[in-house]
Design goal:
2 helices; Ribosomal Protein L30, Chain: A; 27% strand; 59 residues; single chain; three-stranded antiparallel sheet
Length: 59
């Protein structure tokens, strides 16, 4: 599987609890925090739900 780098670019303050939990599940904790994950279908689905809060980069 391909790896992707996810960076949080916006705050989760005033977001729904579901979006906050999705960000936690992706491993993101604060603005400008980045994680590298495998591009599995479940991860892609989570990214689509919070795409307005994150930036993606292919590795």
């Amino acid at each position: 599987m391909a790896k992707i780098k996810i960076t949080q670019i916006k705050s989760v303050i005033d977001r729904s609890e579901r979006q906050k939990r999705t960000m936690q599940a992706l491993g993101l904790k604060k603005i400008n925090h980045s994680v590298e994950v495998e591009a599995t279908p479940s991860i892609i689905g989570m990214i689509r739900k919070v795409n307005h809060l994150v930036a993606l980069e292919s590795l």
